[in-house]
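Following up on my earlier thread - several people asked me to post the actual chain instead of describing it. Fair enough. Here it is, all 124 residues.
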Amino acid sequence: QVQLVESGGRLVHFGGSLQISCAASGRGLSAYRMGWFRQAPGKEREFVAAINWDNTKIYYKNSLKGRFTISADDTLNTVYLQMNNLQTEDTAVYYCGASTDIFRLREWDKYAYWGQGTQVTVSA
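Reply from S.P.:
Thanks for posting it. Predicted structure:
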């Protein structure tokens, strides 16, 4: 069983930066790859980024490369998402997930565990 708790979401002005966190706990964490997804109102949950705990395997949604950076700290069991130059279209609830399916990390239904989400709102 894995528990995930996201934090750090808030209101940010257009062009600003924000880092959100996902604290993981439970047994066997090292077996999981961690991913960030987001879901805007009326839209499907979409892949943002994924990583393994030693930061050697990192994947991004192509359109977010260069603005978003995912990282993992295996001593704190925490995954971070640094978001820069935020746009209004980045407004969404951001979810952290854990998956053992290393070949389908971009697919939300391949994640076994999810956090409750953290709201990021970008104002114009």
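The chain has a mean pLDDT of 97. That should answer part of your original question.
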